[in-house]
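wait is this the right file?? whatever heres the structure
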């Protein structure tokens, strides 16, 4: 399972090679978004993302930025989300006014994992209770343990936590070749990670990692949204960004245009 900041995906080994499994909606990726609707129903994935703008304080996205982190480490991240994150000692709690509850970040991530494993189970016609989950190479022990905890909450035995660039090189079978040094370039929805790996003789070793943890496809969308809103304001004299319904539609249109 690739549990991403913005989107997640799940694959299974079929005939010795990894195959991406589509979710219940038929998509190869699932937005890493959990929301509680006005009626109190929990929404996960695309359905949660589609109401994110109009239900901002009850829609939880980019939760991966808070998993396994302490309050002192996430001052920048807090400015970038529309929901409330409280601190309880060194622990973080995500506030959900609609449900009248506070959740640990791992509990929110667990809901995404639960959907991914349930959809994979339906597709494979099997009960999924064990998984390998990937994390960025720069994740520390606390973030890795918290990811494992999220798996456990989702009812999964996490067999291993694997570095994302390592998983990418394994997917290409690069470890079966002679020794070589490779660069893995991973531009996601929320983060941009670059890693240098040494691969060969059945081994993948991450030598160094860099990038920008606040640069991804979401930022491209935002630039397109702002540009469209500016154009519309100049032509029609209306600010679309102040209308939540319009902003939701604009955000979806910007993402579609980009893709």
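ok assuming it is, sequence goes like this
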């Amino acid at each position: 399972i690739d549990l991403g900041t913005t989107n997640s995906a799940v694959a299974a080994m079929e005939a010795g090679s990894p195959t991406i499994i589509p979710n219940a909606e038929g998509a190869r990726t699932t937005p890493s978004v959990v929301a509680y609707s006005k009626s109190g129903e929990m929404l996960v994935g695309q359905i949660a993302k589609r109401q994110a703008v109009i239900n901002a304080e009850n829609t939880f996205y980019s939760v991966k930025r808070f998993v396994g982190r302490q309050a002192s480490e996430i001052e920048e991240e807090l400015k970038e989300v529309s929901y409330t994150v409280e601190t309880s000692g060194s622990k973080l709690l995500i506030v959900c006014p609609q449900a009248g509850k506070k959740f640990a970040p791992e509990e929110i991530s667990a809901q995404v994992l639960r959907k991914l494993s349930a959809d994979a189970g339906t597709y494979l016609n099997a009960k999924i209770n064990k998984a390998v989950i990937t994390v960025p190479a720069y994740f520390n022990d606390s973030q890795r343990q918290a990811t494992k905890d999220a798996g456990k909450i989702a009812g999964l035995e996490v067999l291993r936590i694997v570095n994302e660039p390592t998983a990418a090189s394994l997917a290409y079978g690069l470890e079966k070749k002679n020794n070589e040094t490779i660069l893995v370039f991973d531009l996601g929805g929320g983060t941009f990670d670059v890693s240098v790996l040494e691969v060969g003789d059945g081994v993948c070793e991450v030598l160094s990692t860099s990038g920008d943890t606040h640069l991804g496809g979401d930022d491209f969308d935002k630039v397109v949204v702002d540009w469209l809103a500016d154009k519309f304001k100049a032509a029609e004299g209306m600010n679309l960004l102040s209308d939540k319904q319009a902003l939701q539609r604009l955000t979806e249109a910007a993402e579609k245009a980009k893709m």
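Helices lie at 46-49, 75-78, 105-124, 141-153, 164-171, 217-236, 244-258. so i think its the right one actually
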